[in-house]
Design a protein that fits this description.
Elements lengths: L9 H18 L7 E6 H8 L9 E5 L6 H11 L6 E2 L17 E6 L4 E5 L2 H11 L6 H14 L6 H12 L7 H12 L6 H18 L11
Parallel strand pairs: 1-5, 2-3
Antiparallel strand pairs: 1-2, 4-5
Helix pairs in contact: 1-3, 4-5, 4-6, 4-7, 5-7, 5-8
Length: 224
């Protein structure tokens, strides 16, 4: 969690990745160094889809564990970003899987190829969101947006695709959040039935309740 919350859009992400790559190339003694970051979560949605405009940080996997903290901090200092604007904290959560590396796709390279940015998208990003299943953040509106995007662009994602992705990433379906899974099923069956603003308002309502008393908001039951 960032101490001073910021909102990063796609232009911001590209600008900060460029600066990371530039500083890596400038400061690295070994010019054959290769840093590979796999971007997940909200930042991955911003890079792959158009329905979400900002994120408060960049969750990623540092594949080789070589991204230098002083480089990240230098970008923070230059642009006034809080510490943690890019981080690997999500690797400690249930939605992390080492297999994400295998199913990532290239986005761009920076710093004369020294920094490679890859992303997670499609059914694999949905699988992560289904395991995360947070009703107090953006997981449900993100799942809705991904499914609707693919449907409207004639590249629909089926429940079979999602089940396969879950198994490929996590080995079985024991980590699945049942509410999230049922929600995804309902959207796939009727992508135009729901209203994104309604989902967002429910997420915000759940956020308030969880902060106060960790109680459950049952409004999402209507989407099952």
């Amino acid at each position: 969690m960032l101490s001073n919350e910021i909102y990063l859009n796609k232009n911001d992400l590209d600008k900060y990745f460029f600066e990371l790559g530039r500083l890596l190339y400038k400061r690295a003694k070994n010019k054959n160094l290769h840093v590979e970051l796999i971007v997940v979560g909200g930042a991955s949605i911003i890079l792959n889809y158009g329905f979400r405009s900002t994120t408060v940080d960049i969750d990623c996997i540092d594949v080789y564990g070589v991204l230098m903290n002083e480089i990240v901090d230098a970008v923070s200092d230059k642009y006034g970003l809080p510490r943690g604007w890019i981080n690997t904290d999500f690797t400690k959560t249930a939605s992390y899987s080492q297999k994400l590396i295998q199913f990532s796709k290239p986005y761009k390279t920076y710093g004369n190829g020294m920094l490679e940015i890859r992303t997670i998208s499609n059914e694999y990003l949905l699988a992560m969101k289904i395991v995360s299943g947070r009703k107090y953040k953006n997981d449900f509106s993100d799942m809705y947006g991904i499914i609707k995007y693919h449907f409207e662009n004639n590249i629909p994602i089926s429940l079979i695709d999602i089940d396969r992705a879950i198994i490929e990433l996590y080995g079985d379906k024991t980590k699945v959040d049942l509410d999230a899974y049922e929600f995804v099923k309902s959207v796939i069956n009727n992508p135009h039935r729901l209203n994104e603003n309604k989902i967002k308002s429910i997420e915000e309502g759940n956020g308030i309740k969880i902060k106060k008393n960790n109680s459950h908001n049952e409004d999402l039951d209507q989407f099952k």
